Amino acid sequence: MKFIILALCVAAASALSGDQIGLVQSTYGKVKGDSVGILYAVFKADPTIQAAFPQFVGKDLDAIKGGAEFSTHAGRIVGFLGGVIDDLPNIGKHVDALVATHKPRGVTHAQFNNFRAAFIAYLKGHVDYTAAVEAAWGATFDAFFGAVFAKM
Predict the structure, then answer these.
(1) Is pTM beyond 0.85 here?
(2) N or C terminus: which one in the chain shows less Cβ crowding within 10 Å?
């Protein structure tokens, strides 16, 4: 059953139109330089995500936001997302990498969905978030997280 779900998710990623891929890549290009702001928005929206990182447990988010450790970690997370976006519609290797690092840590589907919601909220405040952009990002996250969830 998981194979069928995964096959459907990969097919969905492959079904992203060139226009959708272009919209996702261009809007991401406008925000990828603000990795600290993106991670801050994610942690602010769901403190359980911040609590999943031992170096940030129990620390005041506003106090750590300006630190080098936070900036480095934000760069890793946003960089990984950038790799997914750059490789669209080919998400397979990124799915396996994310599952390999997040499944053993007990990251939940809810936390992934909260990451998605916080990232989208961040995007809405920083790009021209049209209906077409919304549909493109929705299809991208549906395909990527659908494939991740099938393996978790």
Answers:
(1) yes
(2) N
